[in-house]
Every structure is written in structure tokens, then in C-alpha cells.
Design brief:
244 residues, alpha/beta, six-stranded mixed beta sheet, four-stranded antiparallel beta sheet, 25% strand
Length: 244
């Protein structure tokens, strides 16, 4: 995936292995990949293909064994733990299947948490505005247990949005949702991309992947294919072929 402008994220010959000796597993194997700014890319592949590992390497959650990871113009490959913490706090956002909301905090407090951890005291109006953007304006004072799965995921997205990250990474963001909630979350992600956000999403669901601008397919830790503008049927057929 090439672009004339600097990509939001670029992987150059990236590898990540686990274990040693005969038990060594190369989860990501010499991957070259770019995620253009203002686009939505879905990452798919059979179980064990390296999808989540690739996402974690691109986001700076895991260190690579070889190659180079760039966030915009910044090489984060050899960044210190402190630098990576600052990067994850200020320049990237994360949305996961399990929501990862703190049960003791309200929706407003969960959304404000990244800013407070950075030493900032955001005005309540800012937090309310972000919740309103995800359709949760009336639920700000509710705790996670008082919200449906789809509502919790929207709060999690608001929390990821509040720092205005360069890239939003999502790992199976609709995997724990019913079909109606999943459609709502996917429509929200599409609106974010249409507004200029960059999203990299791991998913196993062809219908979810079809909402993205491009779909990257992995097999055995390597990029096997790239589809642009694919339908859910196109994606499903490609997955079947990969698993043969």
C-alpha cells in the first residue's frame, strides 16, 4: 500500500518471534506494509496467522525482533519504555473487544482517564462533547454495568478519541457485540475515517472488514493478499481460500 504522502504507520521488514529452539514461532515474518493516512484498513487471516501480533507491533505494544516500525515520521523501533508510554498516551488510540472500561468509574470518568493520566484536567464540556460524538451524551454518568455491550464499546471508542490520536488501533472491536450494536460501532468508525481518522482494525468478521477501505490478509505471519473495496462475500471467499 503506497502513497505519495508519509503513511500514518509503516512496517519495514518487521518480524516478531516467540519461544526458542524447536519451540520458536515466527508470528510476524518480514512484513512490509503501509497504512495511509485517513484510511481504514482491516487485517484478517486464519487463526494463528499473526493478526494481533502485527497490530501490537504497529502500535508499539510489542517490540519487534527485526525491521523498523514508523509512526508518521517517527521511528519507534528502538524507543525507550518511557517514549513508548508517551506515544501510546498522546499519538495512538486503542479499542479492544473486551472494552477495558473501569467498572468503578462513570462513562465520563472513563473517557477522561487518558487525559488525567497525562496530568491534564479536561473540562467536563470536552468529555461530554466526545461522548456526544459517539451517541452517548445521555449516558455520561452511568457505570459500565449499567450499559449494554454496544454502549460500552462506544464509550471505549470515545476514550480512544479524546486524545485525538493519529491512528486508532482496534482489535476485534465488534467481536463481543450483537449484530445491531456491531453495525452501530462500524458506522461510527466509518464516520471517523470520513472525518480524516486513520484506523487499523483486526477482525475475523467479513462483514466488518467490508466496511474498511482495504483488507490485508495474513497467512503464517506474512502478507498474502490485499483487497481494496471488497464486499463481505469477496472477503469470506478469500478467507476460505487461505484456510485450505
Amino acid at each position: 500500500m503506497r502513497t505519495r504522502t508519509t503513511p500514518a504507520v509503516a512496517l519495514r521488514g518487521v518480524s516478531r518471534t516467540y519461544g526458542t529452539g524447536p519451540a520458536t514461532v515466527r508470528a510476524v515474518d518480514h512484513v512490509d506494509l503501509e497504512f495511509p493516512r485517513g484510511t481504514w484498513t482491516a487485517v484478517m487471516g486464519p487463526s494463528g496467522s499473526g493478526k494481533s501480533t502485527l497490530l501490537h507491533c504497529a502500535a508499539g505494544l510489542e517490540r519487534v525482533d527485526a525491521g523498523q516500525v514508523l509512526l508518521g515520521d517517527t521511528d519507534i523501533t528502538a524507543a525507550s519504555d518511557g517514549e513508548l508510554t508517551a506515544l501510546r498516551r498522546d499519538r495512538v488510540g486503542f479499542v479492544f473487544q473486551s472494552f477495558n472500561l473501569l467498572g468503578a468509574l462513570t462513562a465520563e470518568q472513563n473517557v477522561a482517564l487518558p487525559l488525567r493520566l497525562a496530568g491534564r484536567r479536561p473540562p467536563r464540556s470536552q468529555i461530554r462533547a466526545v461522548l456526544a460524538a459517539v451517541g452517548m451524551a445521555e449516558r455520561g454518568r452511568h457505570r459500565p454495568r449499567e450499559l449494554s455491550g454496544g454502549q460500552q464499546q462506544r464509550v471505549a471508542i470515545a476514550r480512544a478519541m479524546v486524545t485525538r490520536p493519529e491512528v486508532l488501533f482496534a482489535d476485534e472491536p465488534t467481536g463481543a457485540l450483537d449484530s445491531t450494536s456491531a453495525r452501530t460501532v462500524l458506522a461510527l468508525l466509518r464516520a471517523m475515517v470520513d472525518g480524516g481518522q486513520t484506523i487499523v482494525m483486526v477482525t475475523h468478521d467479513p462483514a466488518a472488514a467490508a466496511h474498511a477501505d482495504a483488507v490485508v490478509f495474513l497467512r503464517d505471519g506474512r502478507v498474502d493478499d490485499l483487497m481494496v473495496g471488497a464486499t463481505a462475500r469477496d472477503v469470506a471467499d478469500r478467507l476460505v481460500a487461505l484456510e485450505r
